[in-house]
Write a structure and sequence with these properties.
single chain, 571 residues, alpha/beta, FAD/NAD(P)-binding domain, 8-stranded mixed sheet, 6-stranded antiparallel sheet, 12 helices, 19% strand
């Protein structure tokens, strides 16, 4: 029997970016909020002088323990899914702040095309442009409607950047100037301008200068140490929930964080949720936390898993296409890239920052004519200088030995003589790509694991080849002496790191038969339950998801406050 606690206004499941924003906004309005985080407490002091590549980058010191909970994966429904026993394709954050602590800080707005992708694609190319089985749909919100929330998130985090000439209109400039333009970025800029493209500095949550945000949170400028991705920032220069929104919520006196609290079920009575059951992982005790409103703000996989285990919402059925929980799982196409080796130039690529880079969007969204290509959407192309840490980075030109004396000689020679131009492609949803509960494998508590059914499609293969060729063209213009570019995209490989940009499964829209939540991320079936995060994306764009997660979280917070005041479906 679970021990029952007094009811609160709101309980939040997961205290990362989405949970921290919701907590901050609601507690400022006087609501009593409890945040349940299954990982440990975190603070900036934990990362003082901890530039340990082995511990964090290679042994995944900030990630979820896969021996206690993981995911299972299969490429299609005809084969048995197997558990992911070691990290590869993506990294699952653990602890207060979640993946918002170990991210790089690349903070892009999605394009206006993304939010109306079905309508805009059909309008320009006709319905036949959308291949059979692609479950493309509009988001139920436009870029213009979401723009004020993008602006709010970027002011919160102090994003450093400059205007993207091919993006949606902005109501304000970026809060801080762009990052430093290193010599490799200058080379990229000069080369792409010669190719009549439109480069701009990558929008960065690594501050270019000291900044005080609208909540009064002060943060120092980035030191370009190169330890962003997979690391916490010792300076607080990289925006994360621990140094931005969580302190604001704590200061109100209306927020209580309970770490080591693993939520097992959402409780439901009729068409309302009544709270949650969680296990205190330090004692094994089961505890019930009643609440008037439940907000699910954990990572994509856990959002879907909790809903399915709690029998909340209609599970997706791939054969019929009916149901919504688990629908439209999408990932990212990262394989369209090229590496250039230079005989007579050296670069200080050991220095950098998670979001130090130059980007172009000439091949992203619908910014170019797709009439003669066999795919829709596209991806950004960039040269990033994130910091080449020594253990992970020693490429040699293709055709050279990968071990032995010559390999060692080439590794030393090219350690500071290579640059990568990479593309990050969009991921479109398909009827047979989905998430459900695995019937065989369970976690340490005996609960079923979430199962991924996914593989790259012809859409992805064509897109990756197209983008890789553009990356190769840029490196040629930059003067690379040898270029290794991707030629063909094989099957999806879960053992090789690509990105942690998993999306979908609790998607938003304006039709309850094809979406799980409305554009305030309020569930259609259960009006006092909000599900916030990248699980709401009906597809994934050619960008990192965090800016859109943050914008949607601010909109969801507004919706929760409206619901608290008036009840019913928020509009």
């Amino acid at each position: 029997m679970a021990r029952k606690l007094p009811k609160v206004d709101v309980v939040i499941i997961g205290v990362g970016w989405a949970g921290g924003i919701i907590a901050s906004e609601l507690t400022k309005k006087g609501l009593k909020v409890v945040g349940l985080e299954r990982g440990k407490e975190r603070k900036t002091e934990d990362y003082f002088m901890v530039h340990d590549e082995l511990r964090y980058a290679l042994r995944y010191g900030m990630m979820q323990d896969l021996s206690k909970e993981t995911i299972t994966f299969r490429g299609n429904e005809r084969i048995r899914a197997l558990p992911m026993r070691q990290y590869g394709s993506f990294l699952l954050g653990d602890g207060l702040g979640g993946s918002g602590v170990h991210w790089n800080g690349q903070t892009f707005r999605f394009l206006p095309y993304d939010f109306e992708i079905y309508s805009k694609t059909v309008e320009r190319y006709g319905k036949n442009k959308i291949p059979a089985g692609m479950t493309l749909q509009d988001w139920g919100i436009t870029y213009d409607e979401l723009e004020p929330y993008y602006d709010k998130f970027e002011k919160l985090t102090g994003i450093s950047g400059e205007e993207n000439p091919l993006a949606g209109k902005r109501s304000n400039d970026y809060p801080t100037p762009p990052m430093k333009k290193s010599p490799p970025l200058q080379m990229f800029e000069e080369a792409t301008k010669k190719l009549k493209l439109h480069p701009y500095m990558m929008p960065s949550a690594n501050l270019s200068e000291s900044y005080t945000n609208p909540d009064g949170i002060k943060r120092a400028a980035c030191q370009y140490c190169g330890y962003c991705e997979r690391f916490g920032c010792e300076y607080g220069a990289k925006a994360d929930p621990v140094v931005t929104v969580i302190p604001v919520a704590n200061k109100t006196g209306n927020f209580e964080i309970r770490t080591h609290s693993n939520v097992r079920r959402i409780l439901k009575s009729g068409n309302k949720v009544t709270g949650v059951i969680y296990t205190d992982v330090t004692t094994g005790e089961d505890i019930e936390q009643p609440a008037d409103i439940v907000v699910l703000t954990s990572y994509v996989f856990n959002n879907i898993r909790l809903l399915l285990m709690s029998n909340v919402g209609k599970p997706y059925e791939p054969q019929s296409g009916k149901g919504v929980i688990g629908k439209n799982y999408a990932y990212q196409v990262i394989k369209g890239n090229a590496v250039g080796f230079f005989e007579d130039k050296e670069f200080n690529t050991f220095a950098g920052a998670g979001s130090l880079g130059m980007v172009l969007d000439d091949y992203n969204g619908d910014n170019f004519d797709h009439s003669k290509v066999n795919f829709i959407h596209g991806g950004m192309v960039s040269l990033s200088q994130t910091g080449m840490r020594p253990i992970q980075n020693n490429p040699v030109p293709g055709g050279k030995p990968t071990w032995g004396k010559e390999f060692k000689e080439k590794s030393v020679k090219y350690a500071n003589r290579f640059l990568s131009v990479a593309a990050q492609g969009s991921s479109m949803p398909f009827k047979h790509h989905f998430l459900d509960l695995d019937p065989s494998y369970k976690d340490a508590y005996g609960d079923p694991l979430i199962r991924i059914t996914f593989d790259f499609e012809n859409q992805d293969r064509q897109l990756a080849k197209f983008l890789a060729s553009k990356c190769e063209d840029i490196l040629k213009e930059m003067g690379a002496d040898h270029i290794d570019a991707m030629k063909d995209l094989g099957p999806y490989d879960i053992t090789t790191y690509q990105s942690t940009h998993n999306t979908g499964g609790v998607i938003m829209g304006d039709d309850p038969s094809t979406s799980a939540v409305n554009n305030y991320l309020q569930m259609w079936d259960v009006d006092n339950l909000f599900v916030v995060g990248a699980s709401a994306f009906p597809h994934n764009s050619g960008y990192n998801p965090t800016d859109t997660v943050g914008a949607l979280a601010y909109r969801a917070a507004e919706g929760i406050i409206k619901y608290h005041d008036k009840g019913g479906q928020v509009s």
